Amino acid sequence: MSTVTRAGLAEQIYTQVGLSRIESVAFLETVLETMARALESGDSVKISGFGTFMLRRKGRRSGRNPKTGMEIPILPRSVIVFRPSQILRARANGARE
């Protein structure tokens, strides 16, 4: 098992699409920046056949410091969640297209 990196994605764009290496990196950065801006503004990013990235807001809650046992407040925050499509879920479970 290996990790997918920006460099690896840019290399795949270079070899499969035929853009230059510099254009491939710029293309990838544009796509990632567009996704990040959409999530920053609270929009979901849906990639058909892959899945949906969504921003979920979590409210204030209390937690416990595992070391001391003291109760501490956990402030409200936003988290990014990913929901895979049925196609991706099936592929991850070994189904063929």
From TrEMBL:
Keywords: DNA recombination, DNA-binding, Transcription, Transcription regulation, Translation regulation
Keyword match Transcription: yes
Domain of life the protein comes from: Bacteria
InterPro entries: Hist_DNA-bd (IPR000119), Histone-like_DNA-bd_CS (IPR020816), IHF-like_DNA-bd_dom_sf (IPR010992), IHF_alpha (IPR005684)
Entry's family note: Belongs to the bacterial histone-like protein family.
UniProt name for this protein: Integration host factor subunit alpha
Biological classification of the source: Bacteria, Pseudomonadati, Pseudomonadota, Alphaproteobacteria, Acetobacterales
